[in-house]
Every structure is written in C-alpha cells, then in structure tokens.
Amino acid sequence: MRDASAVVRELRTQRGWTQQDLATRARLSRSFVADVEAGKPTVESAKLFDLFQALGYEVALRDLTTGQVLR
C-alpha cells in the first residue's frame, strides 16, 4: 500500500497545484496539507478524505478476498 502522503503530493503536483490551491479546494488549511505531505501521523482521517475528494478521488473499502467494494 502506498503512503497517503506520497499519493496526495503526487496528485497535487500532477495538477500543478500548490499546497494552498489544494487546501482552498478542500476547505482546509495549508498547514494541514503540509502535515499530510510530511507524513505527520496525527492528521485527521476525515480531513484526509476531504483532500482526496478535492483531488477528484474517493476512498472506498475493498474486500481483499473477493474484491467487492463496500458501498
């Protein structure tokens, strides 16, 4: 599994966005985005999901045995 901090940074830079651009779109602070990208372990998961939504992705639970996505 890839580290969320690396994924957020990669998706943000692919779009040419600054940390502030992403923070604005996710309605979060730039310092929160910086904490996520730095791999700070105390970030709130709900806010992390907001970042992925702002980047155009959703987070889903997938059964590792069947591959079925929980909806």
From TrEMBL:
Gene3D superfamilies, sorted: lambda repressor-like DNA-binding domains
Residue ranges of every copy of the HTH cro/C1-type domain listed in the record: 8-62
Coiled coil: none
InterPro entries per the UniProt record, alphabetical: Cro/C1-type_HTH, Lambda_DNA-bd_dom_sf
Protein name: Helix-turn-helix domain-containing protein
